[in-house]
Design goal:
The complex is a heterodimer. By secondary structure, chain A is mainly α. Chain A starts with a helix and ends in an 8-residue tail after the last helix. By secondary structure, chain B is an alpha+beta fold. Chain B is built from 9 helices and 11 strands. In chain B, a hairpin with a 2-residue loop joins strand 8 and strand 9. In chain B, helix 3 packs across helix 4 and helix 6 crosses helix 7. The radius of gyration of chain B is 35 Å and the shape is rod-shaped. The chains are: A mainly alpha, B alpha+beta. Chains A and B meet through helix 1, helix 2, helix 3, helix 5 and helix 6 of A and helix 1, helix 4 and helix 5 of B.
Chain lengths: 196, 277
Amino acid sequence: MREENNRRKEFEDIAMEHVDSLYSMAIRLVFNKEEAEDLVQETYLKAYRFFNTFQKGTNIKAWLFKILRNTFINKYRKAVNLPSEIFYEDVESVNSNLSYKQESDSGELTDTLESKYTELGNLMEDDVKHAIDSLPIEYKEAILLSDVEELSYNDIAEITNVPIGTVKSRLNRGRKLLQKSLWEYAKDRGFIKRGK
Amino acid sequence: MVCVEAIKHLYEFMDKEIDKSQYPIIKEHLDNCFECRQRYEFEKGVRSLVKAYCINTTAHAYLHSKIIESLNSVDAEISENKDIQAVSVQKVTRTLFSPRFYAAAASILLLIAGGVFYYANYYNYNNDFISIVDNAVKNHVVAVNDNLVFNEKTSVVSNVNKYFGNNINNTLRNSSPLLNAEQIRIVGGVPVKLSGTSSPCVIFDKGGNKLSLQIIRNSSFPIRNLERTQFGPKQFYIGNCRGFNSVVWEEDGSTYCLTSDINKNEILRFAATLTSR
């Protein structure tokens, strides 16, 4: 049984420290404390069961996130309506070069960037929560994996099962949507006085 | 570098995914271009908001222990499914010369000797493989009811129809010798004759293989060299007795010894099904 104990110890040593990270992602996926806990627990059970398939030396956190994501999709397959990949990619490729220019031309972004940044601090925690939660799931997961977990594009591509180019465009578009959304909340709260 | 270029690569720059040769170029631009730096700071601000919010969302402490607990169930499951690994060899010598040992050994020898004798006879007319336990059952048992077949000396128990078909005389009154039903006790869901011999024995049929279970009271082991092994929640001792694999375990103050010519892992699995009942 010594081999079993080693396996168990190794798993606990490298995997258990990521419980909070996985939970933090899970709750942004299912919006419910109990379900998020179940999802994380299920992820760990699966991970432990298939621990022998984990390639030593690779990123265990990315591996756990991939299992979490697969578990989530299997469990909530009917509820999760992943939008058409091609549609977004097309929109992205058409708009990517224009967006910055348009924003600049509108005069809105550059004029208010400084105030935007200053005023972001006034956003309520709930606003941030709502802004993240209202993102389409494929943007949300890319942003959380990159901005919160600081995983590489490569890891994110592996976790979400898409090419790196898609990861980049999801981050691009997702971050813009998130900023827009946060900005809306800030406006609604009246923290920012426009035209000042 | 123009602003459009810098902004185009801003995310890759911030995500540390930009080509190393590009990094200082963009950094220099951000340092010197007010507008782009503003944009960079804004992006950074949004990120830290998101990160701060998510990092503050932590799991309850009990989730951690709940997971650890559930890993135990996986451990148990794994040890059931994978080949059993015996860890340490424990020599049990305390009962070597005890009367119990001799009684048990004599009982096993009797069973084996009888089996060998009939097997040898049977083999002359039939080339089909029949195990010695099969033959012991076939030639030493009497029916008590549909499920019990006892032999006066070896206390063999099994399913009547498996061995005798419809020809068996399976009424208690007509069986010989007459058995007292009070001597029969249910052990682990299996009827066992506990008195009459010093070592009662049950024969199981498992996919054509025969296994004999002996009940040894007072926790004495009939086999000298035993390996201790864990299977599920229970500890077993594996040994070999004259070419037969044996699994020994304790339960409710009695010691059980399962013997067969099937392999160790199979016999251990079967033993576990007897204990879990």
